[in-house]
Amino acid sequence: LQIIESESTVCIVEEHAAGGDLLKKIKKQSRINEIEARFYFRQLIEALMYLKKIEVVHRDLKCENLFLDACDNIKLGDFGFSRMMRNGDESHTFCGSRAYVAPEVLRSRAYSGYTVDLWSAGVVLFVMITGLMPYDDRFPRKMVEKQMQHRVTFPSRITLSDDVKQLIFAMLHPVPSERIPYDEIVQSAWLALTPYQFRSSSNIEQISPS
Asked: Which segments does the entry list as coiled coil (predicted)?
């Protein structure tokens, strides 16, 4: 990866996402089964934990900004809305796509830290395993009302484990301080037995979901 600059142009050379984005994969398959979703979600949480460590908030997390490489690993991209946020820092800026944005952002409340990314990650997980959005953003007022009531409706036609439902419910808490933190996510019943793995051409057959 490098930046090439001339008198009139700046070219940023980035890694090629041979697998496209996650939304494209979800649409192709209708949804992603829980076994495969665990692998992707564990990689996503690893990336978000790293951002938290270096005090960066992404603020535009969505399936379209999660890319897949040639070995089907998740790559977090599009940092156009990201910023440094240290402990105690607050922002009022509306960032991200409405369907993925935390209710405190939608309500124009001050927000701080990584909890906005936590919410968006919960939406991503819901979309992965159902192929649907948890909230209808065509009606913003009703959407926020449902979010603030901590209501999450899972489609009855899809069989989902109680563990993944409980995890999503814990991530989509309307009170930022009550959202399940990253360390508890990786230790949750749904994800605890899924260690972080990175597929390569040499090990892809070994760790691909059966």
From this structure: none
Per DSSP, helices labelled H in the chain are 22-29, 34-53, 103-106, 115-130, 140-148, 162-171, 182-186, 204-207
Dist. CA 210–CA 206, nearest whole Å: 10
Distance, CA of 30 to CA of 127 (rounded, Å):
10
104 CB-contact burial (10 Å; exposed 0-12 / middle 13-18 / buried 19+): buried
Is 60 among the catalytic positions? yes
Whole-structure pTM value: 0.90
**Residue with token string 């800026």:** 93
Cα–Cα distances in angstroms (integers) from residue 90 to residues 85, 122, 168, 179, in the given order? 7, 22, 25, 17
| The one catalytic residue among 21, 60, 117, 137 | 60
Query: What are the structural domains of the chain?
Result: 17-198 (1.10.510.10)
